[in-house]
């Protein structure tokens, strides 16, 4: 049985990985998530996914390590995790009634430096909501730790007017891409234990 590590402590990513039925464990990458401001959102998520995978792989060189990173992009501006409720309100103000993209970079690194990577983009359109409804959503604290200040796996799905792309990508880990990378690395599925 191959050792597979998800370089993340995200509960949303763990829930998606659990659905595959593959044995895996998690480990926090503990990396600096700052990237050059000259990077596009797509370049940044690719770099950060690889940085996370490499950090965990350095501690577990015989394992396969899956790293991922996600950013929201609206009108050419990249949104990261909000620092506080005010920042979350400002981010959602840019998204409500508009269309934005979510980019997720994924990197799988294995023994001997084997390396597979992918990038997935989903496009979302949000409903315009009243200021009172926005404040009620912010009261739920789903914005905490989330790029773009919402969770579509929670109450934030009520903001969603349209989704083009892989819903699991929006939740933090594009499973179609993940499965493709794992298959490229030689993992097999549906095995009896």
From TrEMBL:
Entry superkingdom: Bacteria
**Where found?**
Cytoplasm
Coiled coil (UniProt feature): none
Name the active site residues.
Answer: 69 (proton acceptor)
Q: Enumerate the catalysed reactions.
A: a 2'-deoxyribonucleoside 5'-triphosphate + H2O = a 2'-deoxyribonucleoside 5'-phosphate + diphosphate + H(+); a ribonucleoside 5'-triphosphate + H2O = a ribonucleoside 5'-phosphate + diphosphate + H(+)
As recorded in UniProt, its EC number(s) are: 3.6.1.9
Enzyme category, top tier? hydrolase
Tell me which UniProt keywords the record has, alphabetically: Cytoplasm, Hydrolase, Nucleotide metabolism
Which co-factor is required?
Answer: a divalent metal cation
Entry keyword Hydrolase: yes
User: Is Hydrolase included in the keywords of this UniProt record?
Assistant: yes
Per the annotation, which location comes first and is thus the protein's main one? cytoplasm
Biological function: Nucleoside triphosphate pyrophosphatase. May have a dual role in cell division arrest and in preventing the incorporation of modified nucleotides into cellular nucleic acids.
Q: Which PANTHER family match?
A: BIFUNCTIONAL DTTP/UTP PYROPHOSPHATASE/METHYLTRANSFERASE PROTEIN-RELATED (PTHR43213), BIFUNCTIONAL DTTP_UTP PYROPHOSPHATASE_METHYLTRANSFERASE PROTEIN-RELATED (PTHR43213:SF5)
Which family is annotated? Belongs to the Maf family.
State what protein this is by name. Answer: Nucleoside triphosphate pyrophosphatase
Give the source species: Myxococcus landrumensis
